[in-house]
Amino acid sequence: PDDVHSARRLLDDADILSTLERCFKVIHDTSRTPSLGEVPAKNTVPGSRTSARVTVINNLARFLKRNIFDVVKLRQTRLDHNLFDIIWPAMKKSHQMRLVDDDADAGVVIPDFDCYVVFREFLVPLIKDIHCLDISQNLKPHPTSNFFPSGLESIPVEGKTEEPPLETEALKEIHLNLDPAGKWIKSTLVECCRNLEVFELPLTLSVAQLEHVERILTGRLLSKDFSEAIGEETLGQYYSMNEVLENPSEIRTMLSAYGLLIPLLNTNDACQLSESMARNGQYWPYGRGVYVSHTNDFVVWINCHEHMRILCCTQSETVADIGVAFSKVGRAVQFLDEIISFRNTYYLGNLTSRPSYLGTGLRLSYI
Questions:
Q1: What CATH number is given to the structural domain containing 100?
Q2: Which of 31, 59, 164, 343 suits a disulfide with 195, CB 3.0-4.6 Å?
Q3: 87 appears as a binding residue in the annotation
């Protein structure tokens, strides 16, 4: 009676069970040739998956041993999702030899939040490894996300005279130039994702629920207060996913040029249609879209894997100053956190459909 996460019945579909067994054989195929990129990496945490650039499929083999597989293969969540719904990305031939470090999903996706409980024997060690934690240690309470800690203004700097404390707003503009000489970095990107507390992940939502989430978020994003929070005087614009997908699409071209376009599958291609169904559900592209700020360097994708995916790039004149993008994202999330309740747990922090984003929901990257 206390089980509110599982379907309370074992998976008995012979076809799915047979598919899972074939997946297990693929994962543990010893005849597979190692990828050329699978070499030890320097300056990484010993014992974590980043201590060796392993392929997605080989990384799964470390955590989906036969004893674990036999335990979780028969389980289903309340929404009838099974183990295959989690590991299917790693089964694609195009993904099997991809390195974990180069794959944002790390080979797995979460179709609904109950998966974190129902498949915990498999997912918890994998999550610890993805986030460079000791898999033999218990998870500790996840700290509250704080983009601008109050102690920043009091950090002493050797050889520098003490200055008056900075104003609170001044602390929300961080500068961190990763390439002062401007020789190596071509672009930087900061992404942060959040999911609303009272809704499941977009994959499982109905059209009405998708549109409800869309209205909640756009109502906050298309406000003067939000524009001021991210440091802009002019309101941004919201484009529906149909506007992004139309051909030709000026907004898609612009987003691609700024590096703010997320991967979009072509549903007219039979090969991509099945993956689109698995990632986006049957109601794509309804209830989805993207908010674009007036300066075009800040966007919020709505109901694309997560309820909200914030992406921010740096301007061309300060392309390596990732602190500017981080600050803008931080101010946006801080503003929204005060007026919207997001899905959060005691040990995992902010819940996401991609385990690699758990906790802060934050990812910083550069080229």
A1: 1.10.135.10
A2: 343
A3: no
